[in-house]
């Protein structure tokens, strides 16, 4: 006679059921990779554990596998949400593989959102791909989630609609809203942000499509804006009205910031942080002062890209910290850094990170640009004696093992300029582990002195 599953569960001495629920919750929540599916499987361990998982504050569903198993997984999510017994969940995360073979029916997601609308008092994160036939655009209606503090819709590939009752109802607790890879109605977005999210402080818009061509971001409490400029309708506009704005992160996929279509109105002129590409100079000019300017400098080979760089960097806001990420294809490092230092004379700290451009290793000592008459090869652009750096005290250089000559060239430039700097300069070079060649070269460039202190970190 065989032993069934129920006999196995009840067999032996149960040493777990006597533990208090709060301790069982800590055990189930203590492992970062433990999903709600895994927590539900612990029901076989103890009679008491058969329902403990259904009272957890965090619900996390992520899965992968063969395409044939996806429908069963959707059923398991529905079953788990139906069995959930706690009054409110602090977190609901559902993540599926980003694959065109794994698509979630919109009616499934709608039921998960209804659960969030009724039971969630915390973070909602959906990362999934919708199922739609060719030439068929699916819409997902977002219900009111009055107690949600953060909502993130990632990689949906559908149209989000905010069809809320007029006047009544708001996302009263919402502080963070993030949307990536979705279509939005600009008028609905404007209504949600301006009148339905009174506590919104962070907004993330990445890869969104605006079929009607217009969108307005009117958020009186907004402090942080992440914006990826994508293929908006060329006739449309994106207007941001945020008087308390402090941090702006603006990236683009070769479309670029267009001041005639992307405008900041009712925004302060002093930012805490501005992260942009060097080509988005028009956005820099929207602000008078920035505590930290994060600049992505990408220069493809050729004369025209470097000439555009010189034009884009003709004027900078006043900043205390300049954080530069460099990707130079066959252009000289020294004149590029001289240009940036000259335009940011008041900085107190400089951070530089060298990035690879494909498999190209750039710049050897004494390197000359291969583009005929490129400004980066002009002797006038290598003159650093007129740089005025009255405030610079600290420089951080992130070494790139494939670009160590760049690191040496930058250290050499800073040591030469230090003779005209007003303050003692501290240069910290990180990621130098195992490179005796680089260490010896750095020591030979500048021996210990009371003007410059160089610290090498592994």
UniProtKB/TrEMBL annotation:
Domain F-box/LRR-repeat protein 15/At3g58940/PEG3-like LRR positions: 109-254
Protein name: F-box/LRR-repeat protein 15/At3g58940/PEG3-like LRR domain-containing protein
InterPro entries in the record: F-box-like_dom_sf, FBL15-like, LRR_FXL15/At3g58940/PEG3-like
Organism of derivation: Setaria italica (Foxtail millet)
Pfam families: LRR_At5g56370
SUPFAM superfamilies recorded: F-box domain (SSF81383)
Domain of life: Eukaryota
């Amino acid at each position: 006679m065989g032993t069934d599953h129920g006999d196995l569960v009840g067999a032996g001495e149960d040493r777990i059921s006597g533990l208090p629920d709060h301790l069982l919750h800590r055990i189930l929540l203590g492992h970062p990779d433990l999903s709600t599916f895994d927590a539900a499987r612990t029901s076989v361990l103890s009679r008491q554990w058969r329902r403990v998982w259904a009272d957890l504050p965090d619900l996390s569903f992520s899965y992968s596998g063969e395409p044939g198993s996806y429908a069963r997984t959707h059923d398991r999510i529905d079953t788990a949400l139906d069995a959930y017994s706690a009054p409110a969940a602090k977190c609901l995360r559902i993540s599926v593989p980003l694959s065109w073979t794994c698509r979630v029916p919109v009616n499934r997601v709608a039921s998960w959102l209804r659960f969030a609308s009724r039971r969630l008092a915390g973070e909602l994160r959906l990362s999934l791909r919708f199922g739609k036939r060719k030439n068929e655009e699916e819409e997902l209606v977002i219900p009111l989630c009055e107690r949600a503090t953060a909502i993130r819709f990632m990689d949906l590939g559908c149209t989000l609609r905010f069809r809320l009752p007029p006047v009544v109802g708001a996302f009263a607790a919402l502080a963070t809203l993030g949307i990536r890879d979705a279509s939005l109605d600009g008028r609905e977005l404007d209504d949600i942000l301006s009148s339905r999210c009174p506590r919104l402080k962070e907004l993330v818009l990445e890869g969104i499509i605006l079929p009607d061509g217009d969108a307005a971001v009117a958020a009186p409490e907004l402090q942080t804006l992440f914006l990826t400029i994508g293929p908006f309708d060329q006739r449309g506009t994106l207007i941001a009205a945020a008087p308390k704005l402090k941090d702006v992160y603006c990236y683009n996929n070769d479309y670029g910031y267009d001041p005639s279509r992307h405008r900041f109105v009712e925004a302060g002129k002093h930012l805490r942080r501005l992260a942009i590409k060097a080509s988005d100079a028009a956005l820099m000019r929207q602000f008078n002062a920035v505590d930290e300017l994060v600049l992505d400098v990408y220069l493809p080979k050729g004369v025209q890209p470097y000439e555009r760089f010189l034009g884009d960097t003709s004027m900078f806001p006043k900043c205390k910290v300049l954080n530069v990420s460099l990707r130079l294809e066959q252009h000289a490092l020294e004149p590029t850094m001289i240009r940036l230092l000259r335009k940011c004379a008041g900085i107190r700290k400089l951070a530089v990170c060298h990035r690879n451009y494909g498999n190209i290793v750039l710049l050897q000592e004494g390197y000359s640009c291969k583009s005929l008459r490129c400004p980066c090869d002009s002797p006038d652009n290598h003159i650093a004696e007129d740089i005025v750096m009255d405030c610079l005290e600290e420089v951080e250089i992130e070494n790139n093992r494939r670009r160590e000559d760049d690191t040496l060239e930058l250290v050499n430039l800073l040591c030469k300029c230090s003779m005209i700097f007003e303050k003692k300069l501290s240069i910290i070079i990180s990621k130098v582990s195992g490179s005796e060649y680089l260490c010896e070269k750095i020591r030979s460039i500048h021996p210990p002195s009371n003007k410059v202190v160089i610290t090498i970190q592994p």
